[in-house]
Amino acid sequence: MINILLVEDNRSVAMALRQATTLDYDLTLAQTGLSGLKLSLENNYDAIILDLNLPDISGLEVCQQLRSAGDTTPILILSGEDKIMSKINLLDAGANDYLTKPFSVGELKVRLRVLLRDNQSLPTPLQILQVGDLLLDPNRHSVEREGQIIELRKKEFLILECLMTNAGKAVSRTTLGNYAWDKGGTPWTNTIDVHIKHLRDKVDRAFAEPMIRTIHSVGYKIDPPKPPLIRKA
Fold it and tell me: What angle, rounded to 10 degrees, do the helices at 105-120 and 11-21 form?
């Protein structure tokens, strides 16, 4: 039986979800963020359904603490909010998907199946990527350029990883979105553009030669810096 942790303080919602999923999943219920955090760190769950508005600490904080502790369990957020920045913040915090209340149980089941399927087929970690003087280590989740450490948020790191894997080639916004969001939700086009802007601020701005380039009507690509021109005496 697939084990799911549900962190939800509304008992009627929790009981309805337990009844609807009882044939497919073994559902463990936590009614506060702290109890959900404790259960998740002490047990192995196949997925976590996490309400955003909890009575003690927020679902966002629970998500951040789990990811900081190295917990990679797929997380599906439930929330009554439908604001773009709320979704971006949750995805950046490490959530895999986001479902707005009210929702159908059928849709929740589909989202869970996608999360569970993707988690079972995670790719083998890549070797260190290098484009010019830019290095990305996916195992250590580190990036550096000219020996300087560059701190990136999760989505920025994944977008850069996708660009560097396809160095010299144009990568569409759709491809970047699917790669960075693990196919758990399709980001808006302007969301990709915002993340690219942040990437440029960190990867390009402090250095002499920019590497991330816009490909009109297509997307973006990354190229190594051009070698300096050598003038003849």
Answer: 70
Give the residue-averaged pLDDT of 165-175: 87
DSSP per position, 204-228? TTTSSS--EEEETTTEEEE-PPPPP
Who's near 112: CB < 8 A, 6+ residues apart?
Answer: 4, 25, 47, 49, 76
First to last CA, the chain: 76
| Helical (H) or strand (E) element with 156 | helix 154-165
Pairing of strands 219-222, 171-172: antiparallel
The number of angstroms, rounded, from the C-alpha of 104 to the middle of its chain's C-alpha atoms is 24
* Confidence (pLDDT) at 227: 62
What's the whole-model pTM score? 0.52
Structure-token match 């997925």, residue found: 47
Question: What three-state secondary structure class fits 47?
Answer: strand
Q: Which two tokens stand for residue 106?
A: 């059928």
- Percent of the chain whose pLDDT exceeds 90: 34
What domains are there in the chain, each with its CATH number? 2-120 (3.40.50.2300), 129-222 (1.10.10.10)
- 58-114, pLDDT tens digit by residue? 988 999 999 888 888 999 999 877 665 667 777 888 888 888 888 777 788 888 888
For residues 173 and 192, the answer to whether their CB atoms sit within 8 Å is yes
Contacts of residues 14-23 at CB distance under 8 Å and 24 or more positions apart, as own/partner, are 16/105, 17/49, 17/105, 17/108, 20/105, 20/109, 21/105, 21/109
- The H-or-E segment that residue 112 falls in is helix 105-120
